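Run: sequence + magnesium ion -> complex structure.
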Amino acid sequence: MALDVALDIGTSNTRLATTDRGIVFDEPTMVAIDTNSGRVIELGHGALDMVARTPRHVVVFRPLAQGATVDFDVTSRLIAGLFDRAGVSKMSRARVVMSVPSLATSIERRALRQAAIQAGAREATLIEAPIAAAIGMGLPVQDPIGSAVTVLGAGASEAAIISLGGIVTGSARRLGGNDLDAAIATSLRIQLGVVVAPAVIESLKFALASALGRTKGRSEVVLARTVDRGDLVEIDVDADLVNAAVLEVVTTTVRMIQECLGDAPPDLSQDVSARGLTLAGAHAQLSDFAELIATHTGVAVSVAEEPNTVVIRGLRLCLEEMSSLHSLYRDADR
Ligand SMILES: Nc1ncnc2c1ncn2[C@@H]1O[C@H](COP(=O)(O)OP(=O)(O)OP(=O)(O)O)[C@@H](O)[C@H]1O
Ligand SMILES: [Mg+2]
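>> structure
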């Protein structure tokens, strides 16, 4: 029997689930390739650990940026490697359900689908991330009721109101948690004259960033290198610096959600006022984000349970649905 696969390839993290085993992969979207043979050497955490430690013929890639494939061939190799890891043989011609940002262009969608086919999939069905998220949260997406969801990822942010199985109004931006990290890095360079490792920047964000600036007065000591001489120094980073740095992206995200809610027809607006808005995606865990959004939209906002895996859980449910439909067809064929 062909194994079916749900796949959420994000800018930062990739998740893979099968109908029978659930989520079997949830690791960084990274792949280490031997450029001599073209062979995939490591995926996910294994590839991340190889960064800056590889011999010349091994290159570690991040094949996505801002939610979109920037390297078709590497994406396809990543998918093939994931199939391998999940025990899906190339011969089994798996059926794949994948998420795609709602703002993806038709070229980006085709590239993603083709990458899966080239990796050995028999067919690849794309589902827009807000719809997958709404299904993953158990919202009544097929009903004539407005469900408001916002997916906040590393490279894409999307707000949507869903009813009768589709997006009625939506707005999206190619920015997310990664842009917060980039803004913090820029401020550290300009204001303190230092360069800090990406993982340390992210830990500063986790410890000090608050969408409402509630971390005022806190600080963290981290290791950095001076820009001018490259000396290793300890610096004390203030929460004010971090909160000022992330403000612009946070504000843009709130505006995006306001735009989506503002475009909704009156009946759906009423549904959203009554039922609230749910946030998914790992970046939704930014401290006080939900509260800030609630203040600026006048709608009750909550963060989904396990926001990181909402999309992949939704895709897995779609897969189950498709499998049962297929078995219905098979029954009818007899
Ligand atoms: N507790 C947290 N607080 C704030 N940000 C967080 C937290 N946990 C994770 N993040 C951020 O969430 C982002 C990753 O989110 P997610 O895994 O949903 O993205 P993705 O699916 O890879 O990207 P995309 O869907 O945008 O292509 C990173 O920027 C990470 O720093
Ligand atoms: Mg994502």
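>> summary
Residues 140-303 form a domain with the Nucleotidyltransferase; domain 5 fold (CATH 3.30.420.40). The first helix runs from residue 44 to 50.
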